[in-house]
Amino acid sequence: MPVPEEPTALAEVVVSRGPDRTLVEIVGELDMSNADDVQKQLGKAVEGSDVLVVDLSRLGFIDSAGIAVLDRLHRWLNSSGPTLMIVAAPRSVAGRTLRMAGMDRVLPVTPSRDEPAVSRDRLPPGRGELTPALGESTLSPPLPSLEDS
């Protein structure tokens, strides 16, 4: 049975643990006002799981801070082992937003829980790392200087 985590302002994070995966549904809005709290809840949800499914089907709004949470989660899990699957149908708010931002080509997005996520290559070394607590991020390598050209 799904266990709702504590409400995070505009979003509710509902975690359901199964024998082979953990399902996290984010309902409502994911933006800069609650991104840190949602990120912490995602970090807790992945503990002890081999597969984390993040379902954005009932998300009514997501901004760049919300997308950054998903990107950091993806980078962290790429380096630590558990598999991530993000559910966002193409016509959903999250699906359209991820596509417009080009993140549908970066994140393991699938249109439904029943379909496997598109396989994504592991990140090359130095392309972004997270602390083990899913905290501070260094998402990109430093930009090259003009002298490097």
What does this protein look like?
This protein is of the alpha/beta class and 149 residues long. The chain has a single domain, classed as STAS domain (Transcription Regulator spoIIAA), CATH 3.30.750.24. It has 3 helices and 9 strands, in the order E-E-E-H-E-E-H-E-H-E-E-E. The strands form 2 sheets. Strands 1, 2, 3, 4, 5, 6 and 7 form a 7-stranded mixed β-sheet that branches. A two-stranded antiparallel sheet has the order 8-9. Helix 1 runs parallel beside helix 2.
Low-confidence stretches: 119-149
Which fold name corresponds to the CATH topology?
Transcription Regulator spoIIAA
- Quote the beta fraction: 25-35%
CATH classification class:
Alpha Beta
Shape: globular
List the helices and strands and how they pair.
Layout: E1 3-4, E2 11-17, E3 22-30, H1 35-46, E4 51-55, E5 59-62, H2 64-80, E6 83-87, H3 93-100, E7 109-110, E8 129-130, E9 137-138
Give a brief outline of the structure:
It contains 3 helices and 9 strands; from the N terminus they run E-E-E-H-E-E-H-E-H-E-E-E. By secondary structure, it is of the alpha/beta class.
